């Protein structure tokens, strides 16, 4: 079962324009209460190793807990819903601090009041 903040590998398919595509790691941002119901669609934020220092991206340092091999950026501007069938493997988990930063950034992008 997936947990909020999990770093997973998934197949995003063929991209259009500047969207993330193909095989990518991503962070699961779906609320845990939803994940507990084992949905067939989850919300994810793709990761990239191209660090651009955009305000819409959160930098994540690699460690044994998250399973990342390189410094990565969570592309919050690319949040998307994907089928759980696209999940290929679990790498680790970002932890509550990074997950909170990602969710806060998504909230700013979507103009959700805090």
List strands and helices in order, with pairings.
Elements: E1 6-11, E2 23-28, H1 32-35, E3 41-48, E4 57-60, E5 72-75, E6 80-83, E7 87-93, H2 96-109
How would you characterize this protein structure?
It is built from two helices and seven strands; from the N terminus they run ββαβββββα. The protein has helices at 32-35, 96-109, and strands spanning 6-11, 23-28, 41-48, 57-60, 72-75, 80-83, 87-93. Strands 1, 2, 3, 4, 5, 6 and 7 form a seven-stranded antiparallel beta sheet that branches. The radius of gyration is 13 Å and the shape is globular. The relative contact order is 0.25. The model has no long low-confidence stretch (mean pLDDT 94).
Q: Mean of residue pLDDT?
A: 94
What overall form do the CA principal axes indicate? globular
Tell me what portion of residues adopts beta-strand conformation: 25-35%
Structural class of the secondary structure composition?
alpha+beta
CATH architecture: Roll
User: What order do the SSEs take from the amino end to the carboxyl end, as H and E?
Assistant: EEHEEEEEH
How many strands, which pairing sense, and closed or not: the largest β-sheet? Answer: 7 strands, antiparallel
CATH topology: SH3 type barrels
What does the radius of gyration come to?
Answer: 13 Å
Key words describing this protein structure:
114 residues; alpha+beta; SH3 type barrels; 7-stranded antiparallel β-sheet; 2 helices; 7 strands
């Amino acid at each position: 079962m997936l947990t909020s903040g999990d770093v997973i590998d998934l197949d995003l398919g063929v991209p259009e324009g500047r969207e993330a595509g193909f095989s990518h790691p991503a962070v699961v941002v779906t609320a845990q209460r939803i994940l507990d119901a084992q949905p067939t669609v989850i919300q994810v934020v793709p990761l990239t190793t191209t660090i651009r220092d955009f305000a819409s991206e959160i930098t994540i340092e690699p460690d044994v807990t998250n399973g990342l091999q390189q410094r990565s950026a969570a592309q919050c501007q690319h949040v998307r819903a994907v089928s759980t069938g696209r999940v290929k493997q679990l790498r680790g988990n970002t932890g509550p601090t990074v997950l909170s930063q990602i969710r806060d950034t998504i909230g700013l992008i979507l103009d959700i009041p805090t």
